[in-house]
Structures are given as structure tokens and as C-alpha cells.
Amino acid sequence: MTYRPVPLPSAPGFVVWKHDALRDYARLAEPDGQSALVLGDAAAVLSAMPAGCVQTVITSPPYWSLRDYGIDGQIGLEDSVFDFIDALVVVFEQVRRVLRDDGTMWLNIGDSYTSGGRTWRAPDKKNRARAMPVRPLTPPGLKPKDLIGVPWRLALALQEKGWYLRSDIIWNKSNCQPESVTDRPTRSHEYVFLLSKNERYKYDVQEVQGPNGRRLRSVWDLKTQAYPDASGHFATFPPALVEPCVRIASGPSELVLDPFVGSGTTSLTAGRLGRRFVGIELHPDYLAMSRDRLLRNGFVELTADVSAQDIATA
Predict the structure, then answer these.
(1) Cα–Cα distance between 238 and 156 in angstroms, integer?
(2) pLDDT (tens digit, 9 = 90+) per residue, 270-296?
């Protein structure tokens, strides 16, 4: 991909908030408003934000049955994949409310396989991080070893709720994690769905181009990357996946949202490109990781009503 040159801010600023019933998010709607990391439940924070304040959303929610993040209220360990999708739809209905009328959402989501009756996930000798002591049972209507089709089930559920489903982008991982499986191809891709609030929306087709100056295609060849400042988070998507989305769907000082900010890649990338950002995170360890990652990359913490110690003990 090739990009138009843009002037980069020298030291983007941000605040850190802990959500409560009295939190006022009105400043987010102002063109010269703040960037923020917010500790709290995504649906609760979003319901308190002003309508129509966000230009674009770039996010990767927890995948179903793949990780136990060890915190009450987490999404991803529902007993049924259908309950999981319903939980995400609730969050994304609030996302749609806070989006501008010409806003978009770029949604990265991975798939998984049925458990085959096992209530745990065994470690793969080539990928030990996949081990998990708890695992939901095979959903009704599916068989052992079935690929569940989570990305498309979620995309179609959002389409039913009124989202416009505009593109299914394939993130092709040329350096994907190896697998020990011997009866199917190794998975080497994930989906990024482009959804919009309305039929017409902000999309700068000239901002990002493919090889030889061609229009951007729907298969993006991007390597996964390990980031020392994001170590400890299971699922870090690369800035190279986020950057084209930010550039195409937003302009300088416009607000970019990630309701599952995790290690902070969306906030980091948006801030580097001169956009404001809001990153919401339920897990205090990951919010602290996002904060520290921004600081290590030259961002400036303007104010915080929650200290690093408070985040760690929330």
C-alpha cells in the first residue's frame, strides 16, 4: 500500500478516565476535544457518549472461546456462540449511535472450531498460547470439528440490525502461526468487515492505493508483528492493518473509536496520524498497557483521574 504524505503531530496528548455514572463525555463531540483512554465496560461507556461524535471505528473484539481474560463482564466465554454474537450486537448498536451519519466501522474478527465435546483447549505444540482450561460446548446445530463461521454470523447479524455491509477484506498473514492439524489447511487469514451507518459515507478512495497506483483491493497481505510494548496481550493486530482504515475513513482531528482497545494499537495509530481517539477497555491491565505504550511512543498524558496504580488495582 502507498499513502499520501500527512504532517504528523509532534506529541499527541490524551487523558485517562475511569467510567462512572457521573462521567461527562461531552468534550468528545467538540472538534478540538480530547483523546481518551477509558477504563470501563464498552456498552456502558458508549451509552454515556454523545450521539454522532465518532467518525470511524476500528476494532477487534474478543474472539469466541479462544481466550479467558480473567475478568468479570468479559465477552468471549459465553456458553453459546449465539449469545456471544448477541452480546457484540448490543455493543455495536451503541457504536452505531455514537457514529456520525457518514461514519464507518472496520471490524476485525477471527473464526474458531467447535470443541468436539471437550471443556478445555489443549495446547498446540506449535502454539502453546492456545491452551485454555475452559471451553464452551459445541453449539446446537453444529458438529464436532465444524468451522463455526463466527465472522459471517456476526456480520450478517449486524446487517440485520441496519448496518450496511460494504466489504469483506481478507487479512492474509504471510507469517501466520503454525498449526499441528493434519486434516485441513493451516489458517492464515482473518476478516476485516467494512460496515457503514448509512448508504453514503466518508471514504477517501485516493488516500490509500495498492500496487502500481491501482485502487485498493480487498486482500491485504500484511505480516503479524510482535511488539515488546504490547507483550502480555494475546491478540495484537498490527498498525499496518489499522493505518489504511484511519486514513480512508477519517480526517485530521476527527474522532476514531476502539471499544475493545486492548493493547492500544488503534489509539496509537490514530494519534500518530493526527486524529483524536477514544479507546475503551474493561481489563485494567490492558488499559495500563495501552497507556504505557502511548507514553513510550511520545504521547503526552494531559490529565488523569485514575493513576497507574489505580488502574492496576481496579
Answers:
(1) 26
(2) 999 999 999 999 999 999 999 999 999
